[in-house]
Amino acid sequence: MNAKNSEEFKFYLNVPNTLTLSRCVLAIPIALLLYRGTESSILAAGILLVIASLTDWLDGFLARRLGQTSVVGSILDVVADEILFIPTLILAIVAGLFSRTAALMPLNPYPYAIPALAGGVTVLVGVGFFLWKRRGRAMEFPTPPGVAKVNYWFWLAPLIAAVLKVGPDWFLAVLMYLAFITTVMSFYTYLKKGGYVFTD
Known about the structure:
mainly alpha; disordered N terminus
């Protein structure tokens, strides 16, 4: 591994990376509050979820503005997204927060939840493959294509709406259907761009 490649893989505790790590930290109280399941704790979880979600935009913005982008920061950002999203979605389903769309979506909420969870797990597995293969040779990290970054917000939108009980039932259902559509598109583009992580 050359020196440049090694340098790219150093972790710096700068402002963008601190914000990214805060998303991982916030995932813990969000999960605990959803697990508690009272009306006030679910509301508090929703507020924390919105705050944590905003760090996903802010860390990237600051990294670019401050010239602090890095491979490690990109990987950390992707992993933090899934650490926040996956347990929160599972606990929201267990708490019955999507039940109000049962009449509007067959097999509710699984047409939204299963592709989103499968996408999240695939991303984490891909990161694991990348880190494992990179030990012995230089390998470029496949940063998420634009549609994948937008798709993450399509995953979050129904989750936030469900937890905070935002909007009428049809509004939540529309967000869930949109998440399904963008997940299929994102899955294809992500594998097309970064499939070499699994095959090379």
